[in-house]
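User: I'm putting together a small comparison set for a docking exercise, and I want a reference complex before I start. The sequence is below, and the ligand is magnesium ion. Could you produce the 3D structure with the ligand included, as structure tokens?
Assistant: Of course. I'll restate your input first, then give the structure tokens for the complex.
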Amino acid sequence: MAVPAAIDKVKIIVVGDSGVGKTSLVQRICLNEASTNPGWTIGCSVEVKLHEYKVGTPVEKTFFVELWDVGGSTSHQNSRSIFYNPVHGMILVHDLTNRKSHQNLGKWLAEVLNRDTYIEPNGYNYDPEQFAGTQIPILVVGTKADLAQTLRESSFSRSSVAEESGADEINLDCHQIKCLAPGSTNAVNLSRFFDKVIERRYYSREVLSGHSTPTQERRRFLKNNHID
Ligand SMILES: Nc1nc2c(ncn2[C@@H]2O[C@H](COP(=O)(O)OP(=O)(O)O)[C@@H](O)[C@H]2O)c(=O)[nH]1
Ligand SMILES: [Mg+2]
């Protein structure tokens, strides 16, 4: 089999409150393991996964998917934005047993989408209307499904931020080897999300007619949503 000279890649940012399971999730996706004690993420760590775009179709192609696991502590809020450019996709992670972590997803979304605008610390204005139908594909992941089931805390209903941003959503237990087993609903949804990110980055009409900067992207987004 011919090995491609260069493999195109996409960059996906993984954000969410500290302790929700971002590192565990990234390790599960990229290494199919999740240590029970992943350690504190300082700054940012990146794992890479080879993904078959549109597998089984004539346009099938291999891509690198980079998952940027960004430390969630508030003390790093000012420096985090350097990791947000460029961003082709976003995974918003919350802990199903921690309601607050779910409520904070809007803040994370705003922080990444406002990456080229200076915003006062803690001054994120999450306006669901503004972010409805954002151009960047988003996946909302609820972790600790194992604990949520025993605690009976999880509603497992579609989360509001997923609804408002048009995001896909999966819930899982990062410690469970089978949680992303090939062919499972979670694995199919994750793969579909990666396809969407690649499609938007490499195959959308705007991209084929020339690259757009984050500022242009944001302007177009605001225009599409009739916000001046
Ligand atoms: N029971 C359970 N524990 C989890 C799950 N995901 C993560 N954890 C644990 O939650 C803690 C924080 O996880 P970590 O990946 O470091 O979170 P991060 O700060 O968002 O990167 C660790 O002790 C993990 O082992 C899960 O799905 N189920
Ligand atoms: Mg971490």
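The mean pLDDT is 81. The chain is about 35% helix and 20% strand.
User: Thanks, that's exactly what I needed.
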